[in-house]
Amino acid sequence: MKKIFAKIHLWLSVPLGLVITVVCLSGAVLVFEGEITRALHPELYRVAVPANVRPLRPSQLADRIRGQMPDSLHLVSLQLSARSDEPCMAAFRETGRRQLSVDPYTGAVNGWAESPAFFGTVRKLHRWLLDPPPSKGEKSIGNAIVGVSTLALVVILVSGLILWIPRSRKALRNRLKVSCSDGRRFWHDCHVSLGFYATLLLLVMALTGLTWSFGWYRTAAYALFGGTPQIAVAQEFPARKTDSGSRQSRERSGERNTGREHDGTQAETEARPFDYAVWDAVLGQLTTHCTAYKTITLTRTEAQVARQSAMRRIDRATFDPRSGRLAEIARYEDTPRQQRLRGWFYALHTGTWGGIWTKIFYFLAALVGASLPLTGYWLWWRRCTKKRKTHLAAVSRC
Hints:
Shape: elongated
Number of strands: 8
Largest sheet: 8 strands, antiparallel
């Protein structure tokens, strides 16, 4: 039986090994994207806390931001942090995902907070091998190659684990350590022993990552954990943070609108005059209802309250855009399971579910995953060379 698994392990690894190395190595780089970005630009993510000074109200911040930015930019959301040393982030209709870092005590603009272009390239390499689909929801050759390679990685890891099972206690001790005294033994142990230690986390990353590669797999995975298959497929096209509350209510009830209807409704909402003093009333009510939070994001139609959790738990509150009176607070626990599953899969795939320690373990596991095909190629080449020498020696004796 082990011979069959050895053949499967080998002939899946040989053609797809380099792709697996690229995907794992790029994934390791992305683990600490947030930490690296903040370390490179600390002035955008930290502010000095003055003594005996309270943060400005949202309406005051909005006025000072508009006073420093061109009239062509329209403020659509403001993200406020519970930490006193973190800035607030302002988003504009015309700037996409780029956010403006603002000092919450003075209203001074610190600059644009965005991920470096390097990480954008690494992300494209990780997900699509630098061949992104022409539009969201479509497929590409790079997407298909990454998906097939990830699916093959699951089989490779399982077959490798079966091949790893020792036959004796002495063999078990040898397969749990890496010998550094013998060069040949060292590379063998790096493949066998380190591969064993990284298998569990690599399987978690691969099995969750497949939900972004294949629709059929995403539907099956969501259904397995209690999500409705039909709605799970619709989650491939998530609503943006600036969507109106009415649209999200319709999505929760299972209805679907076309992109044209949504864009028109959103454009009409953002084009109407808005009194930013409404945000002051909304913030006061939310801080009363939600005493412990990480951030509060205020838009023109709803507020999103992110909890102190690594699992992306967000409560959503709709309010009257004229009076600021809260209409409804949708708790994270009350959202449909299929919506929560996407956040769980993302946290399990990226290692954010346990904070900095799980990130460190994911980073090391991804590095090991990137090295496994390379050490496997070396072991295969050495075995082939040994067989060739044995064959030539037998021929010469004849």
